[in-house]
Structures are given as C-alpha cells and as structure tokens.
C-alpha cells in the first residue's frame, strides 16, 4: 500500500511552507508561488517531510491519504 | 524575576478581562498570566476591548488551527462586529482599499497571488548571500564603533531596513524617512493625527516610486507590481497599499526578533552556546523557530469576525461575533509544546503560530526566517562576549504597539 499526496490548488495561498518542509515533493510556480505537486506517490523516506508539510500548510490544502 | 520558569500562569479571569491583557511585572518575555489561565480553564471566552464590545478570545493552539482556516471566519473588517485593534483602525477601515489584510477568499486568494512572487522560497533563498553581507558589514561597523552601544540602533533596525529596501527597490537614501514613518504608523501610543500623517506620507512616497518604476523598471518587487498594474492584474492603488504594507510589516517585527531574541538568548546561556557552537543550518533554522515561538511578538491578537454561526467545543460563536486569537498563549500551550515556558532550541518548534495560521499567515515569513537564521547564526559567533549592558528591569518595553518590542537595548562585549 502506498500513500498518495493530494494538493487542493484553489485553496493554496502560496506560503511555500510545503517547499520548506518537503522540497523533493513540492515546488512553487515562479510567478505567483502556488504549490506544484512534484511527486504524487512519495517514497517512504519522504513521508515524514510530507507529514510536516501537511501540518504546517496554513491553508490546510494538503492531505496524505492511504490508497 | 526575569526567568520565565518562575512567572505566574494564573490571573484574574472574572469579571470580563480587558484585552489586550497585561504581562506580569518582572516577566517581560512571558505571555500575560491571564491569557495562560484562560487557555487552561476557559479556552474560548468573551473579553472586553477598547470600544466596549465583547469578542471571543481563543487561546488554545488546536482551536486556533481549527478556526483560522475556516471560511466562516472572516478577515473583512467591513463586516459588522469586527473587533478593531483601536480607534484609528476602526476609522480607516471604510476608506482602506481591499488588500490581502482585509479580504476573504476568493478575492483574498487573487490578491495574495499577485504579491507572492517575490516571497517564493527559491527566490528568497537567493537573498541569503546579500543578507549575509549586510549582517557582516553591520557587525564590522558595530565592532569598530563605541562599546557599549544600543543593539537596536546599531544592528537590529538597520538589518531589516536594508533587506526590505533591497527587496522592494527603495533607494537607501530614503531609509531614515521610512524607519520614522513606519514606527509612527505602528506605534499604538502615537497620536492618531501623527499616525495618519505618517501613513499619508508613506502612501504618497510609494505612489510616486511605483510610477517611476513603471517608466524605468528594475529587478525589484515594486517594479514587478508596476508591471502587474500595467497588465491589468492589480490596480495602482492596490500596488501602493501593498508596497506600504510590506515596508511596514518587514521593519520593526524583524528588528524586535533580533533585539528580544538576543535578550532571550542572553538569559539562557546554555541555549546561546548551542547556537554559537553549531554551523548546521537545520539546527539554526529550528533555533529561529523556537525563538519565534517563545517570543511571539504580535501582542494585539489576530482579529476576525464570524460570517456565520460556528459551533466549537461547547460554545457557539454567532454570526457577527468578533474573535481574537492570542498567538502567544497558543504558542505556550503545553498540549503542543511540553514545558512551553522553557526556551529549548532543540524542541520541534515548527508548528508554532508566531506568523499566524490560515490563509492570512504572514506573507514575509520566509524572508523573516532567512534574516533571523543569518543573524542568529552570525552575531553570537562574531561577538561571543556580547552581553546586556543594563539590568533587564531597566529596559523599557513597548506594550502598546501591534508587536511587542524594546525601546533600546544597551549591549557591551
């Protein structure tokens, strides 16, 4: 079973906190900073970073779901 | 009693407490004892503010995280019941343009995306070297100058001034004017007419500067906004207001985190030693977040109003009720930060709410973190004998501004 990252783009306020927490999983658009999901199925070694991104996203726009 | 471990955590919670709540005498860095008592006993409760209205005060970390991103919780200060910080803010609300600071989604989302570009993490990171140079040069000057000196004037204020001037593209020659005007606008004890005049002067200055940048753009934030105005993505008035807001928001907040951060670290020599002896960027980054958590300098609370009825815990916040989020109380919530009264640079601190939480979380937080990482990672290594050259009781703290601060901080080495 792998984990899937969901990013709610319309809710994103582009604070960049996900990029700070998990730079291998998230990036930002250059012009407005809106988050880009680089890796929908991150490896286990990245999950702690993704969980931190979920916790600190101020817009509550990221979810990590079992699938 | 300057050690926070011995500071009171109980205070009168009856009758209705008046907000903002006073800090305890002799405990300049700890949250108000009544705020801590309310968090433990009445985490969502009514308080009284300057105009006699009685908004809710929310003090627990978890409740703030639940409410601040909620779409029923509005930052639009034209909604009836909005708990204004003071009379000046109430007075200017109807004539203030729509900004990221007074709008809700979807308007807020549109506006925020027009101003986010310069604060994208990768772009901010490119400022590390220029900021390091600014900090190194200021320390050189300080070491070559008088000893003792005022850390605030010699170092803490010039750092963010130089950084924000570089970011926005404000000529450095206008630096004194900016520092003076932004101080007046932010100082809650300033006469309303002085604050109004200062804010008018800043607006006129920025208005003119953005027009100049439209004609001859550079690679700075104001030029970028001028471009967005020309492309029809934002109005000229929005660009001017955003410029003023960024300038003011970036100044005294960062300066205070440098001065009070240094004060907090000097009071905890074991923690200061950890910082002085490491060059691990992750350790320094976490130290910055822990000092942000510990000090949480926003002292007037984050203000919101309910757009609809909201049930939370055993209370119902009614449509039109004001809400105040006390960030310092939440950042000392023992449910999230055990032994929160301890400054512990090694604790996981990242989830603090010193920059607020929700869609309005501080736009400049990544820049602020970077400035503080460079400062905390450099100042105490370069000046290992740095010490406070006054009794802490003799320092004069600013209890009235939007953010906490100290009026001068004598240091020697």
UniProtKB/TrEMBL annotation, chain B:
PROSITE patterns according to UniProt: CYTOCHROME_P450
> Which InterPro entries does the UniProt entry name for this protein?
Cyt_P450, Cyt_P450_B, Cyt_P450_CS, Cyt_P450_sf
Record Gene3D superfamilies: Cytochrome P450
Claim: Secreted is one of the keywords in the record: no
In the record, which residues are listed under signal peptide? Answer: none
Any keyword Repressor? Answer: no
Q: Name one Pfam family in it.
A: p450
List keywords of the entry alphabetically.
Heme, Iron, Metal-binding, Monooxygenase, Oxidoreductase
What family does the Swiss-Prot or TrEMBL record give for this protein? Answer: Belongs to the cytochrome P450 family.
Q: What is this protein called?
A: Cytochrome P450
Look up and give the organism this protein is from: Streptomyces lanatus
